[in-house]
Amino acid sequence: MVDRLVNSEANARRIAMVESCFGSSGQPLAEQGRVLVGEGVLTKICRKKPKARQFFLFNDILVYGNIVINKKKYNKQHIIPLEEVKLESLKDEGQYRNGWLIRTASKSFAVYAATATEKEEWMAHIEKCIEDLLRKSGKQPPSEHAAVWVPDNEASICMHCKKTQFTVINRRHHCRKCGSVVCGPCSSKRYILRGQSDKPLRVCLQCYDELSRERVRPPNQQQTSANTTPVKTDTAGSGGDSSGDEDSDDDDINAEEKHDEPKFYGDSEKTEETNNHSSKEAAK
């Protein structure tokens, strides 16, 4: 189905519309062979609270952004190559239902659909795109993925020392290796996690110790040392936390509103082409 839509005029119009909705703040999306498979709103679990995000599924990338004006304007565009993605279904728990994890080496997060049917559609279409990409490229799916961050409101005290109470002064930080919410002293060390960044990232003391032990193991017993490098320890209170950069997509301005069901393209174009062909035949 995707191959048939590559040169479709409708596909070109849709991609152009997505580009126009992001405006100058987004990257160009039109490329040879790229197809817009579907689009819709999903709830993304961000650091501070869940947020509605507009998602666009292409046959090779997943794009999402903040909703400024529904169906008209989006900003803070994020592009995720599907070859790097692994999906993991989440069990329904309390208010969080119909969710799954989107995992990559650099960033992992949870999203939730409005209904079980929408979740099934989203996951099936994404998995199909990933499967097709890996089959064509001959690549293997990634084996390592970034941790999913624990939301701020799920930790009132440090998850490492179990003592420090978070306040305006005692800020929350996230370990980039395990995703736990930790205090400053318990995340005073940094490590280069190659899959996430070439710069040193904040890690909790437990992960730092584990990574350090892994690094000195014999080569045949090492698992992650090739992708990690220790760096200097922060002194207390020094060194900025990049949590704000990771969570920059929390600062949107859209109001809560009802969103339409997601749209997945393919069958509708087949019907459109059939109708057009029938009309031409009838006109002869």
What does this structure look like?
With 284 residues, the protein is α+β, with helices and mostly antiparallel strands. The protein has two domains: 2-145, Roll (PH-domain like); 152-239, Zinc/RING finger domain, C3HC4 (zinc finger) (Herpes Virus-1, 2-Layer Sandwich), CATH 3.30.40. It is built from six helices and 13 strands. Strands 1, 2, 3, 4, 5, 6, 7 and 13 form an eight-stranded antiparallel sheet that branches. A hairpin with a 7-residue loop joins strand 10 (189-193) and strand 11. The chain is globular, with a radius of gyration of 22 Å.
Structural topology:
Blueprint: H1 2-5, H2 9-22, E1 36-45, E2 50-58, E3 61-69, E4 73-81, E5 86-89, E6 99-103, E7 108-112, H3 116-137, E8 173-174, E9 181-182, E10 189-193, E11 201-203, H4 205-215, E12 228-230, H5 243-246, E13 263-264, H6 267-283
Antiparallel strand pairs: 1-2, 1-7, 1-13, 2-3, 3-4, 5-6, 6-7, 8-9, 10-11, 10-12
GO molecular function: phosphatidylinositol binding; zinc ion binding
Keywords: Metal-binding, Zinc, Zinc-finger
Protein name: Pleckstrin homology domain-containing family F member 2
